[in-house]
Amino acid sequence: MRRNRFLAAAILAATVAVSTGCATSPPPVSQKVQDYYDANKDRPLGSNASAPAAPPAAPVTVGFDLPSIKTAVATNPTVVISVLGDSTGDAKGEWVDLWAKHLASTASVTVHFWDQRTENWSPNKAFYPGAAGRSIEIWNGSQPGAMADYPATRIKVMQPAKPDFMILSFGHNGSTSAIGPSLLATTNAVTTQWGGKVPTVAVLQNAAGEPRTAQTNNNQAALKLWATNNGVPVIDVRAAFDAVPDITTVLKDDETGVHPNDAGSQIWADTVITALG
């Protein structure tokens, strides 16, 4: 009985202490908990709303060099690319199309194809859905048999939207002496079209078999000289083809000796992917 009275007295004392504010103070709140409280004290109870998303980064300015172009291709919300070239990249399954499929790993990609018969844009385009929130549009103005000045008189049609950069892929057709002046005619037309220079990349194309081996070699040497003199970066597809022990295994068995087969087109695309992402 005496023990029960002692226990009741202890409980009563504890109750009084709590009600009068004499209870032992709780341990201090850690700084981490305090910071969380300060950041969330105004949120409605039970709210599961996430913190506001960070504003998107400003688009990367595309410079006249491969690293800045590669960064823009990988990060900018929208990218417009103009490809001006010949029959080595005009069709589905060739390097432009294969590159577009690769780019679809980080963006939705649309490829427009040039119609060699109408010399205008084909209504048949390729769309490769990719990561949401980014889009890449490629205007693939590759024309079979084209020399480097082919786009010069057609540039308003061939570049319906201002490109963030353009790729020039020529060298198999035309004379060696005409390469430099032809490239200059096209780049001048682009500058006039958009009121200023557009970042430009030149492709040193694949090696050729007979009967075009010598012509392609000489034209490529002239193109490389033009690019060096004009500060235009080069994607050296030729070096990737030269690394193949037997060039005939990566070329189509046709009379021209210049067209890559499926394996050759993949080598070409892989080289562009390494350079531009």
Q: Short summary of the structure?
A:
With 277 residues, this protein is an alpha/beta fold. The chain contains nine helices and eight strands. Strand 6, helix 6 and strand 7 form a beta-alpha-beta unit.
Identify the notable features of this structure and list them briefly.
277 residues; Rossmann fold; alpha/beta; 15% strand; eight-stranded mixed beta sheet; 2 domains; single chain
Could you walk me through the main structural features you see in this protein, from its secondary elements to its overall organization?
With 277 residues, this protein is an alpha/beta fold. It folds into two domains: 2-40, no CATH class; 66-276, Rossmann fold. Helices cover 39% and strands 15% of the residues. Strands 1, 2, 3, 4, 5, 6, 7 and 8 form an eight-stranded mixed beta sheet that branches. Helix 6 links the parallel strand 6 (165-169) and strand 7. Helix 4 (95-103) crosses helix 9 and helix 6 (176-194) packs across helix 7. The protein is globular. The model is unreliable at 1-27 and 45-55 (pLDDT under 50).
